[in-house]
Amino acid sequence: MLEQVRIVLVGTTHPGNVGAAARAMKNMGLADLVLVAPKAGVFPSEEAAARASGADDVLARARVCASLDEAVADCRLVVGASARLRSIPWPVWTPREAAPRLLAEAARGPVAVVFGRERSGLTNRELERCNALLHIPANPAYPSLNLAQAVQVTAYELRMAAQGTPPAEALPEAATAAEVEAFFAHLERALVAIGYLNPAAPKQLMRRLRRLFLRVRLEHDEVSLLRGILTAAERLAPRREP
Amino acid sequence: MLEQVRIVLVGTTHPGNVGAAARAMKNMGLADLVLVAPKAGVFPSEEAAARASGADDVLARARVCASLDEAVADCRLVVGASARLRSIPWPVWTPREAAPRLLAEAARGPVAVVFGRERSGLTNRELERCNALLHIPANPAYPSLNLAQAVQVTAYELRMAAQGTPPAEALPEAATAAEVEAFFAHLERALVAIGYLNPAAPKQLMRRLRRLFLRVRLEHDEVSLLRGILTAAERLAPRREP
């Protein structure tokens, strides 16, 4: 579905931003880039290619259109980025709200996210071509993201939404409760043997150690390692009469 | 809380990335930037200032450190970015998973997110200084984000979490990175003293113990407790000639 999401850059003036946007798109699995009336020399350009790094395939496929209408003509959902919250009474979505809606529609055909000029963004007229506005939450004192950074955040949210909840990482084998309890018994014996724990009053100390080692969720191999250390310490302790 | 989240850039080679990272930070409300051993000419530099755009206050406050240890010494939670999923079995968090954890701890003092070199990232040794790894979900065929873009995505998730997360439950005071490193040094000495660790080949064993005790995120009082046990064990060990 990610390949059905088009990124449209309107009136871009810095070639580096085109390249960086292409890289951000490819990093997140997007591939469809359209430039509307870029400033002369912006695309194609050496600087765009340099900043794209390994994403030159995205640049090679990119198309240039004369108008926003042309760029989004086949799209069923068009969202326009706006750093300022305009007076126009359009629905405003964060990237997190927009991503699942874009993907749901992308199952049926192309959709677009439109980003405006570096200095001035999209005009009200352009925003009024959109189904909804995209607003990236930001520091109110300094809300305007670099163009490629805004593309990055949006593409990241699209990928997160496409992945759904990531599968839990494969973890090493946890110790069983019985193994952990046997470790605690061994720990208590060893602490008595080395003279750190008073067997007449073990309660608080062992409780604190239990809290630590239960919190970490010991692995099978870690129990063996820790018990090896305890055995080495016990060997040094003076023999006591039982 | 966002101002307690430190962004640490290790070995940065492109001045533009420092400036773009500062802008991304300020856009999201972050302010604490530390550079560890940047390449000569990277900072301060005209290119960094130009790319920072209006975020020159973040650059003006940025500090340069000689080592990662120095940069994170006062931090209670340190997360290291890794594009590749390394063989080292550390916990791996997405930015969305890491953000609320960082903010919960930031309520009480500095925390850090560490980003590595543009070409090679963080070394395994540097990652082993961290409590957890940060992995930005990405296209497996092209997973490596530009440095400033990785900072942007992370800072965005921090802002989203700051806006949405209720205040964290009161947690006991975590140990600082410097306290934890001092514990590891003490642990290694004690293991040598009791004859468990061969000082000629300490690597794997200490790495496994680091992984365990960094994963649990030791509290200040727990470090004292564990070091008390180590001191008791050392007292029993036969004196060795230095």
TrEMBL record, chains A, B:
Annotated Gene Ontology cellular component terms: cytosol
GO terms for biological process, alphabetical: tRNA nucleoside ribose methylation
Compartments it resides in: Cytoplasm
Keyword Methyltransferase part of the UniProt annotation: yes
KW Plastid (keyword) present: no
Enzyme category, top tier: transferase
Domain tRNA/rRNA methyltransferase SpoU type: start-end pairs: 5-156
Catalytic activity: uridine(32) in tRNA + S-adenosyl-L-methionine = 2'-O-methyluridine(32) in tRNA + S-adenosyl-L-homocysteine + H(+); cytidine(32) in tRNA + S-adenosyl-L-methionine = 2'-O-methylcytidine(32) in tRNA + S-adenosyl-L-homocysteine + H(+)
Protein function: Catalyzes the formation of 2'O-methylated cytidine (Cm32) or 2'O-methylated uridine (Um32) at position 32 in tRNA.
Subunit structure and binding partners: Homodimer.
Protein name per its UniProtKB record: tRNA (cytidine/uridine-2'-O-)-methyltransferase TrmJ
